[in-house]
Amino acid sequence: MNSKTATRIAGLAAALLGVFPVFARGSRDAQNSAAQNNEVVVWTYDSFNSEWGSGPGVAARFFEETGIRVRWVSHGDAGTMLSRLLLEDGAGADIILGLDQNLAGRALASGLLEACKPTGAEKIFPELVVDQDFRLIPFDYSYFAIIYDSEAVPVPPQSLEDLTAPSRKNSLILMDPRTSSPGLGFLAWTKAAYGPAWAEYWQRLAPSILTVAESWDTGYGLFTAGEAPLALSYSTSPGYHLEYEKTERYKAALFTEGHPVQIELAGLLAGAKNKANARRFLDFMLTPSFQDSIPLTNWMYPVIDIPLPASYRINTKPGKTLKTEPVTSEELNRWAAVLKN
User: Fold this and answer.
1) pLDDT tens, 191-202?
2) At what angle do helices 78-87 and 181-194 cross, to 10 degrees?
3) In sequence order, what E strands does 6-94 have?
């Protein structure tokens, strides 16, 4: 009963009129609390929670096992998601899922993440652990690679330098390192390969670039639509085409200088409103129920030892893993200036 209705009721004492709003507010608070206690809010990137991504199946399995609903909040690509998280001080999120090691430094420096070593952490492949305090927890990984259409590219590139050949003009689709984690990973890759001369490499590469997409979804979609025969993606992408399209047309070009790994991470927000549920989700994340959904939906490798689908036979792991260093804001600005000129 609201106060406007209460004032119309004859004979009620003035003191009693105040009881009803308090009671109504208390009921709403209890309902909101109950709703929160039955959910966990997870921020992620668009493709993870798409109809073909891992999100829907993961949420269904988690609810079946725990009775807790996952409320996904999608924020474009990982770079965009992190920027939003920092801008809003993590407001509304219990977990952030989908950052990688190239974005980890900014996330950890923010102080927004809380240490949370989940049950089963000892099963994670040790080389994938990027934070010993488990403020960020690995949940999948793969290797950055240039994917090529073998029907359009009879001789694939064998190195980063091969991408700059005049014959590759307007043949390559990349992603923006300011908004996309694959884009940031590729910039870090060129830094690792060329050192201080990375900007000069990008000047040579520029004529080969057809477009720089805002996100992996957009860029790889243009590639599969036939807009260009080369695109930045992952060494696990060919398995997708084999599994769902029954084709081995799309392949990963293996480069002599090696390939960087991308480790995708999830973290508990220190200000999480549903912290107990969030901890249960992070425990669940390292179980086979979550991990065995990753290969055929997120098209990455699981972080624990479980069998892989048959289609992964086409996914070749690089012979050399290239170690990369974080990209600074100054380097991002320099990259933008190079491509603008």
Assistant:
1) 999 999 999 999
2) 110
3) 39-44, 69-74
In a domain, 127, yes or no: yes
Q: Is residue 292 part of a domain?
A: yes
User: Phi and psi of 124, rounded to 5°?
Assistant: -65, 135
Q: What is the domain range of residue 179? A: 143-260+316-340
pLDDT digits (tens, 9 = 90+) for 75-116: 878 888 999 999 998 889 999 999 999 899 999 999 999 999
Which token pair is 82?
């992190």
Please check whether residue 26 lies inside any domain of the structure. no
Same domain, 198 and 328: yes
pTM, 2 dp:
0.84
Say how far residue 130 (Cα) sits from the centre of its chain: 15
Q: Are residues 162 and 69 in the same domain?
A: no
Task: Please indicate, yes or no, whether residues 58 and 110 belong to a single structural domain of this protein.
Answer: yes
Collapsed DSSP state (helix, strand, coil) of residue 162: helix
CA distance 62 to 290: 8
User: Which phi and psi angles does 39 have, rounded to 5°?
Assistant: -145, 165
What is the distance between the alpha carbons of residues 101 and 97, in angstroms, rounded to a whole number? Answer: 12
Closest CA to 298 of 210, 186, 181, 189: 181
Residue 222 sits in a domain whose CATH number is: 3.40.190.10
User: Cβ contacts of residue 249 below 8 Å, gap of 6+?
Assistant: 149, 150, 151, 241
Residue with tokens 């030892």: 305
Distances (CA, A) of 271 to 42, 71, 139, 280, 309: 13, 17, 22, 16, 38
Please list, in sequence order, all residues whose beta carbon lies within 8 angstroms of the beta carbon of residue 26, skipping any fewer than 6 positions away.
none
Residue type, 41: V
